[in-house]
Amino acid sequence: MHSLACPAAACSGDTVCMATITYKDLEVLFTRQQIAERVAEMGAQITRDLNGEKLVMVGVLKGAAPFLADLSRAVQVDATFDFVATSSYGKGQRSSGAVKLIKDLDEPIEGKNVLVVEDILDTGLTLSYLRKLFLQQRPKSLRIATLLDKPSRRLEKIEADYVGFSIPNLFVIGYGMDYAERYRNLPDICLMTPDHPE
Ligand code: PRP
After folding, report:
1. Nearest to 117, CA basis, from 68, 75, 81
2. DSSP assignment letter at 93
3. Is 188 a residue of the active site?
4. What's the CA-to-centroid distance between 91 and ligand 1, angstroms?
5. What is the Cα–Cα distance from 166 to 168, expressed in whole angstroms?
6. Are 77 and 47 in contact (CB under 8 A)?
7. pTM, whole model, 2 decimals?
8. What is the pLDDT of residues 189-198, one digit of tens each?
9. How many C-beta neighbours within 10 Å does residue 106 have?
């Protein structure tokens, strides 16, 4: 019997479903329910802080997409979306500090309330780079919301204004976060162990 929990978009529903088996082997760190509750709280806080003003939500592709989609529906403000994409020069060389912008904002943010939306704040290199870049445009306000924060990994001095969950140095996947581009569509946040079968 095909499991309803199967997160694979292309799953055929056959009796043998590797995606389901793989997913069942993963340890869940935060369930979809826990995520939904925390995102609702974050949305309420952001709504209060905006005091009726408009907001530009800037998602950092690709990992922030599910979080931005949910957070945007938890804020009760007049909001627009924009997206940026960055890359580091090779995942293994991230500590070099070299972050490159591969997709810029579509619209100017001068004079606007900007909320940068991230799935995870790790070394801080990406958000430090983006913060500096965005501040050059003189937004009215610039805040950061991250669903996950790994403070022990920080290389740059940067903190988010809104943090969903603070976690130790664990390799997490799901709810936007990937391992070699897979698992982004898992509805829960799971732990990827080094010996996990691919
Ligand atoms: C992840 C995450 C952040 C960044 C955080 O993106 O979405 O953008 O890393 O890491 P840092 O604090 O060490 O800079 P990634 O480069 O993996 O791309 P993705 O969002 O497309 O998965």
Report:
1. 68
2. G
3. no
4. 9
5. 7
6. yes
7. 0.87
8. 999 876 666 5
9. 11
